[in-house]
Structure formats: C-alpha cells, structure tokens
Design a protein that fits this description.
Blueprint: E1 4-9, E2 17-21, E3 29-33, E4 39-43, E5 57-59, E6 62-64, E7 71-73, E8 92-95, E9 98-102, H1 103-108, H2 120-127
Antiparallel strand pairs: 1-9, 2-3, 3-4, 5-6, 6-7, 8-9
C-alpha cells in the first residue's frame, strides 16, 4: 500500500499556476493547478534546457516552459510535437482539499536528474 505525503492545500496553488515542493535530494517537484481545478505534479525541469516549469504558464492541461516556450503535457510530462522529450511526472492525490504526493516517489523518483549548466557558471566549470 502506498504512503502519501501532504505537501499543501489546493488553495495554496494559484489557479493557472504552480507551487514548488522541495525535496531533501534531487530537484524540486512542481505541483500545478489548472482552471478546471485539476492538480498535476511534474519534476520542475523542462526536458529541453532544464527551465523551471513552475514558472511557466499553465493552460488547459499543459504548461509552457518559461525559457523557450516548449509545451509540456501536465498528464504525461511529454513535450508537444514537433519538440521531443519528457519530464518525470509524480502521482498526486487530493483528499479533503489537501494535495498529497507519493512518499516513495518524493524520496527516490528522478533524484539523479540535474539542471544543465548554462551561462557564466558553465564556462567557469568547463575551464576549471
């Protein structure tokens, strides 16, 4: 039987927006709420260049990455054609207005993924 971790209340997530859930290991999880009140959870990382999906624009059951406007499905984490790639999704439940994420997934799912280095930090690391 799965264990679930409460992460926030539904009303804590802006309509057409997201809330980040920090994890002890790995990147944050982005929890989204669309205009129909549906709740979704994805790793807060676009499959293209690692942009923070939690800062993107939610529309329908998709989110637009704030960096390059890739459209990512909130159901599957898949990029819309012609783009290709996928970001990990997380199981989510809502009970009595509380948003819950699967405890095992929070602890272990996609903890090996990182954001790509870009900009001055990338050049400094590459030259070291």
């Amino acid at each position: 039987m799965s264990e679930w971790t409460p992460v926030c209340r539904v009303e804590d997530i802006p309509v057409l927006g997201a809330r980040r859930v920090a994890r002890p290991q790995g990147l944050d999880v982005a929890v989204f709420r669309n205009d129909a009140g549906d709740i979704f959870a994805l790793l807060d990382r676009c499959p293209h260049k690692g942009g923070p999906l939690s800062q993107g624009i939610v529309f329908g059951t998709s989110v637009a990455c704030p960096l390059h406007n890739w459209t990512i499905s909130l159901h599957s984490g898949e990029a819309a054609a012609p783009d290709e790639g996928c970001t990990p999704r997380f199981a989510v439940q809502v009970a009595d207005g509380q948003v819950l994420l699967n405890t095992a997934e929070l602890a272990h799912h996609a903890t090996d993924l990182t954001r790509p280095l870009a900009g001055p930090a990338c050049r400094q690391t590459a030259g070291a």
